[in-house]
Amino acid sequence: QVQLVESGGGLVQPGGSLRLSCTASVSIFGKYTVAWYRQGPGKQRELVARIPAGGMANYPDSVKGRFSISRDNAKKMVTLQMNDLKREDTAVYYCTLQSGPYDYWGQGTQVTVSS
Questions:
Q1: Would the pLDDT of 55 be above 90?
Q2: Half-sphere exposure of 15 toward its Cβ, with a 13 Å CA cutoff?
Q3: Coil, strand, or helix at residue 25?
Q4: Average per-residue pLDDT in the chain?
């Protein structure tokens, strides 16, 4: 059974930074597209950042220049560095792995941006 374990969420002031991490219990981590999604209060779930297997990272305009996703295939880990956080970044953040019909999600970690 595949498990994704996220960590690093918490409370941060506007303008601050947080780093989220996610480790996966899969045999071949490198073949997966890894991504972070988020769902804010009263909002739909949205993509935050994605790295395809062997590809380039991509981001929506809402976080471009502030968030950075990276992956370490040897450690089976994906991280999300979030800088210059805004109140509207408040959400539950989910780590995902996708490959063909396989689509795995973590349990989510809360990020709250508030003064």
A1: no
A2: 1
A3: coil
A4: 96
